[in-house]
Amino acid sequence: MAHEHDAAGTTAASTPQQTGRAHDERAAYDFAAIQGKWLPVWEELRPFATDDPADTRPRKYILDMFPYPSGDLHMGHAEAYALGDVIARYWRQQGFNVLHPIGWDSFGLPAENAAIKRGLDPAGWTNDNIAQQKASMRRYAPSFDWDRVLQTSDPAYYRWNQWLFLKLYEKGLAYRKASQVNWCPFDQTVLANEQVVGGRCERCDNLVTKKKLTQWYFRITDYADRLLDDLNQLEGAWPSKVISMQRNWIGRSTGADVTFRIEGRDEPVTVYTTRPDTLYGVTFMVVAPDSDLASELVEGARPEVRKRFDDYLDVVRGTTEMDRLSTEREKTGVFLERHAINPLTGERIPIWAADYVLSDYGHGAIMAVPAHDQRDLDFARAFDLPVRVVVDTTQPVTGAIPVIHTDPETGEPILPDEAALENPSETGIALTGEGRLINSGPFDGLSKSNAIRRVTEALQASNLGAPAKNFRLRDWLISRQRYWGTPIPIIHCEQCGEVPVPESELPVLLPPAEGLDLQPKGTSPLGAATDWVNVSCPNCGGPATRDTDTMDTFVDSSWYFLRFLSANDSTQAFDPREAEKWAPVDQYVGGVTHAILHLLYARFITKVLFDLGYISFTEPFTALLNQGLVLMDGSAMSKSRGNLVKLSEQLDEHGVDAVRLTMAFAGPPEDDIDWADVSPSGSAKFLARAWRIADDVTSAPDVVWKTGDPALRRATHRFLADAPGLIESFKFNVVVARLMELVNATRKTIDSGPGAGDAAVREAAEVIAMALNLFAPYTAEDMWSKLGYEPSVALAQWRKPDPTLLIEESVTAVVQVDGKVRDRLEVSPKIAADDLESLARDSEAVQRSVGDREIVNVIVRAPRLVNIATKPRA
Ligand code: ANZ
Ligand code: ZN
Questions:
Q1: CATH code, 194
Q2: In the chain, how many domains are there?
Q3: Judgement on whether residues 827 and 788 belong to the same structural domain of the protein
Q4: Is residue 639 marked as binding?
Q5: Contacts of 640 (CB under 8 A, 6+ apart)
Q6: pLDDT digits (tens, 9 = 90+) for 277-331
Q7: Which of 228, 270, 275 to mutate to test the pocket of ligand 1 (most atoms within 8 A of CB)?
Q8: Count of H helices and E strands in the chain?
Q9: Ligand 1 center–CA 415 separation, angstroms
Q10: Does 58 reside within a domain?
Q11: How far apart, in whole angstroms, are the C-alpha atoms of residue 389 and residue 371?
Q12: Domain check: are 259 and 354 in the same one?
């Protein structure tokens, strides 16, 4: 290790020598020696084990998001685990039995792609990385319970993934269907909507296309309402940004289904609309070109129309969903030469196919209201279709009496003010606001919201419609055509169809990678493992084949927090009694990159397990803290940018504690940390300074506290009183700053006060060690031992502040009027100048003395003096 750079060494040399011991007797703060000394002690002591059934302390479950084993630990991990550990260690000091586990999210594409690139077995590559990360983590010393380690690529874990799949399958929540799926041509795999970012693959950044495939889904849409409504419970305990991201992702929309009769077709077509109030303004219908309905409607059409449609469909298939929904794009479409009938007015309207209508939302068909919907208006203007205004958006909607302008001759409503109510077909701007209905027969005069209700009721009464809801959320596509994942425990039999693998035959082990071509090619590599694939049907014994797909790794991470509770239990996924004891997670800590997917899936699976009776709670993570990123020179660290800071080098240079302390001290946890702006060597210096205090203390552990220096005692107890609230509101950086002040105050008492033997110095040193345990565990442990205690400081309980020491001192402020002392006020030494001035002005003695003279000048020297000058009488 690089001792030459140890900043602490220089500090120790410059520390004043006033403890009575000779210079050469004093050891320097040597982080490497301290790390080397305490790590083996902790490994022996297991201070963070949670396996004592007789433990009666109240419990807390503190969870850090588990890492992908994609290489050694990096600076981002270092930040996350430093911050998560502050919380875990804090609750232990508060008397809780804290469960703080760690594991690896070790299946998935990163491992597989890396393994392919290097020609290695993904299992070997993954396990090597885990071993390396584990060694780094041990040295980094978060207070993990090392007896509950799990890794998702271990059969002992993924067996229960398969069990979970079967539970969902039994409930009808896992199903297979053929559909257009997002396809990454580079990774040669399907992607969930969530994994497509801006039309590109989240992993490799290539453009995503569509492909029709049969895939496995989890029916998360059945839980959409609950996933949305239960977010209310998390308000205040989760970052509001994450809650709103979840809400938008689920995207609940309420409106109505409306059925339109189609000329020349027996079956009517249902459309979904959020604006049933605009039904009188419908001037055409649009179906998604890639829907079955469109193909069917165009079947009997003239050959030119069919040709035009087929050509159009080809183009549409190659267009991303994002482009299709874009309002910027020129509208395209094909008239199908078919007609629908408006259910309320009987009006005959043309049916078009256009790509701005998506096949997998609502019913894949819409009623178009160009006057009030921008996309419909753009389309109508492009193809010269009629535009009819049915909501007068210049009309006030509050107040009982609507103003309706009708032509006295014809009784037709008149648009009230041409200027105010502009014609959308001319302006190109749809009228989307509030207003009152016009041109809508019996509904004229109703406000938009009343009309939505009344029109829906009218439709419902004649069986032509009903209230409806839709979600942006799609079912969760969980199958992948890749090797490195959990095999789906289904067998396909010619006779029986899909047959679940019996639970007693789990796990379905992955076949060895050796001999398989893992290169992505659109079908699962598992298909080539013929010995593995060909089985006999568990149901009829006939020839059958295994499902060759593997599960999305988000399945693995959707319930891992429960597996930690029974990590070594080979008989069940988790013990419901352990879940009852520990879960839900009290505090979850991790990156905001998982704000949508991972959290949504974990919330979904939690609700499923609740419904199945395995757990008694419905939300997995009671509170969530998202730490920021660690940047370098203003941007995310990356090899290609050349601004990568290597954690191992930072640890070698500054020591574990200095790096951890720097992470906590850098600012609020949610903010990004720019490593160029922080000073790990400054942290190391501070740690040396703190450590030196314990080294200096000469009193014995049984001193009488009362006899100590009162000023230092007050500072210590103020810190004891304030730190808990600061930690609980994640103001770790403030606690560190306060701790620095306490160290300074203690040093002052040693060097220029009552000295190192004073009881207050010992008391302060002990509190400093306990507080440092949160941020710099090695230094804290070493101080604790120097102070005469057995390890571990991590188990020492936070002390209750003495209330008599928390009462603030007061000082006497003198108030002068025109140079004469008129009053003395007892005030806080921290009083603000403004407050002191108003106290002085309010003083009766001062007012008597000022009388009716005008005050021309006030000089305030808080907290000791206020000088008031008046204008001398003429
Ligand atoms: C008529 C109408 C009039 C509409 C109006 C809006 C405004 P959200 O909020 O996203 O649920 N729509 C329905 N299905 C669609 C599909 N498969 N593809 C594209 N658009 C679709 O939006 C629902 C609205 O989006 C529906 O309400 C429908 O247009 C359109 F003044 O119906 B509306
Ligand atoms: Zn069978």
A1: 3.40.50.620
A2: 4
A3: no
A4: yes
A5: none
A6: 999 999 999 999 999 999 999 998 999 999 999 999 999 987 877 788 888 889 9
A7: 275
A8: 29, 34
A9: 25
A10: no
A11: 5
A12: yes
